[in-house]
Design goal:
It is built from six helices and nine strands. The chain is of the alpha+beta class. It has three domains: 49 residues; 79 residues, K homology (KH) domain (GMP Synthetase, Chain A, domain 3, 2-Layer Sandwich); 64 residues, Ribosomal Protein S8, Chain: A, domain 1 (2-Layer Sandwich), CATH 3.30.1370.50. Strands 1-3-2 form a three-stranded antiparallel sheet.
Length: 206
């Protein structure tokens, strides 16, 4: 369980100082949200309330979650966690990574979804959780990016648009982010849901 710490004060500056003092830590080690509240029944006055989560508590929760998963799967799992702002990069290693990854990464993706949901159920704060198994996802993304770059170069050469197969929103975002690196190349998405696909478009310079 991830503990939530709540403090109240007359102003925001005092509130943050109070939280840091009570928890004996620095601001970069906390995730917090501040809201204005009213106090008093007859004579209402404004106060501020801060809800705080400690980064170390979240990290420990993830490690405990993975320890439970390891026991459930009867598979020793090593966990490495790297945190940058609100981004949690989680790397898993085991004696049989193929089991953790699953066909086309399905088991790995399922673990990521379940972990995200578990953390969201614990805290009311927007965190980004990215899970990988022995750099499998990173390698897949590298290969995917390499293939897309080849296609963009082909469109540059032929000056003919190219429609790609339907893909998920993450892959589409990767392609859109690559387009500005190529002259005369733009990208746009068409379709809905699972049928949404990208077109790599050749655009003459104006």
């Amino acid at each position: 369980m991830i503990e939530k710490y709540v403090f109240e004060a007359k102003n925001e500056e005092e509130l943050i100082s109070l939280a840091l003092q009570e928890l004996n830590t620095s601001e970069e080690n906390l995730y917090y949200q501040i809201k204005e509240i009213e106090s008093g029944k007859l004579f209402k006055s404004k106060k501020y309330q801060i809800s705080v989560y400690k980064k170390e508590d979240i990290i420990q929760y993830i490690k405990d979650y993975m320890k439970t998963l390891s026991k459930t799967m009867d598979l020793p799992i090593q966990v490495e966690i790297r945190v940058e702002d609100t981004n949690f990069q989680i790397q898993l290693f085991s004696e049989n990574n193929a089991i953790l990854i699953g066909k086309d990464g399905r088991t790995m993706n399922a673990i990521q979804i379940l972990l995200k949901q578990a953390v969201q159920n614990q805290i009311d704060y927007p965190l980004h959780i990215h899970l990988d198994v022995s750099n499998y996802r990173a390698k897949q993304e590298h290969n995917f990016e390499y293939e897309i770059k080849k296609l963009m170069k082909e469109v540059q050469k032929t000056k003919m648009d190219m429609k790609l197969e339907p893909m998920n929103s993450y892959q589409r975002r990767m392609i859109h982010n690559l387009a500005p690196k190529f002259t005369n190349i733009t990208t746009f998405s068409t379709g809905e849901g699972k049928d949404r696909y990208i077109t790599i478009h050749y655009e003459e310079e104006k």
